[in-house]
Amino acid sequence: MAKDPKKQAIAPQFPSEAVSKDALQRLADARAQKNEAEKDLQEAYFFTRPRLCWDVKSTTSTKRNRDRESEQEDLATGIGSEVSEDFATEVISAFFPQGTNWVESTLDESAVVDLEPTDVADLKNEAKERDGKIFSAIRASNFEAELGDALDPDASVGTVGFWIDKPHNTRPISVQHVPVRELEINVECDGSIGDRFRVRHVRASKLRSVIGNVPLPEKVTRKIASSPMTKLEVVWCFWRDWSDPENDKWKHVLLVDKTAVHQSMLDGEGCLPLIVARFSPDKEFSWGYGPAIKSLQEFRVLDVITAATQDRVDVAIAPPITYPDDGVLDFEGGIEAGKAYPARPGSGRDIAKLYFEGDPDLGFYTATDLERRIRRKFFADYPEQKGDTPPTATQWVDEMVMAQRRIGTPGKKFWREGPYEIYRRFEWLLKKDGKIQDVSLDGQSIPLIPNNPATQAADNQKLQTGVQVLGIAKSYFPETSAAAIDERATIENIQKLAKDDVVVLRNQQQTSDLLQTVLGAAQDAGVVPTGGPQ
């Protein structure tokens, strides 16, 4: 019986060979960019996370034949991993403070200039509620759990990758850290990240768990069936479609074993699942220039000095000795701690120490200075008590403000490529699911501008200045300052700058009622005179 042609399965249509060639050429260009930064990346990982320094290229799968003993012996200093963790903590505190909305949507003032104040207030409340839904989705996902793994040590190296998607409708949004080994990027003419790729080498038998039910060409399916243990290169490719420059459109191509098996167009800001954020990037190079790469000179010298100091201490603790023999001392090969060397008899002692004293204190002092410089580059130079006299509270706050202000310069680009894009990605996914809508008035969408509220240094500076002004007013005008200063509004401003959500203020009516009750009780007790004649 002949099959109904309408019920026959439609053969999948795969992208043309030209699409595969275009994607592979773009991938080759991105890999050429990583080749220029390969040595810096490897050396930065060597000092911050040694086991990651072996694999930074995406051309091969992870190596397993590593010489762990030589890796541990080569590295003498361990400050790299310490300051890398501190820097990740500073990045979270500055750009992803827990429990707060680290991106805030504000209305485009040019779009609401003709609106009534009540309408503007309603739109602001609507935008605030919309932000609440977005950050509720962020906290419901595994973003905060994945953030620490992503930032340490990649943030110190200078480039951090995230993969944010919702593979299942019934589960929260999923966030994955994309290691540098899987990441390939290139830059546009303006220095922003353009072409971006995620490369994985997957065993053929596990391919479906990675790409889902995407149809595959016959040659790929045959290879999987014949060699299930072989590894296939899977590449998710994204590049900007400049045929429509006014709109944010991206082309997505999935490569399996160097063959394009799927392509699609992504539209709208936040449509990309692959997000890459960089510290201190150059317009001519795609990879970031993080504190670990900036500190390579100090790391190299510190490592040599630490090793030399350890060797000198080792010799001092277990000095080599000489013993009488017919041989002659020969130091051509150097001396080792705890060893015994033959010496010609007649020196006056049968057993003698053989130790040429150096100055290990010089090594300690030099290492301390280098460590201080490294901590400064990692923004981990917290205020220290350098002398016997402890610093005043004002001096301590001043040093903290200066340390926080310095991270703002390399952090501006990072915020735009990191927190801003992450916010936009969650926003795009929620809009796609119909869980949030655009803020609109009378059917017309009102544009929102995401801003960075995590300006802790500037806020601390304002808070410090305000406290100083408040102290001066209370000191010089104690009688009139209470009447001149609006205490409630001042406390609210202090809470806002300090980002405090612990202290709860009564509303204006409750405050007035309580004040009247207290004053009435004081007047009844005769503590406060009444307004009658004396």
Automatic annotation (TrEMBL):
<dbReference type="Pfam" id="PF12236">
    <property type="entry name" value="Head-tail_con"/>
</dbReference>
<feature type="region of interest" description="Disordered">
    <location>
        <begin position="59"/>
        <end position="80"/>
    </location>
</feature>
<keyword id="KW-0231">Viral genome packaging</keyword>
<keyword id="KW-1188">Viral release from host cell</keyword>
<dbReference type="InterPro" id="IPR020991">
    <property type="entry name" value="Connector_podovirus"/>
</dbReference>
<protein>
    <submittedName>
        <fullName>Uncharacterized protein</fullName>
    </submittedName>
</protein>
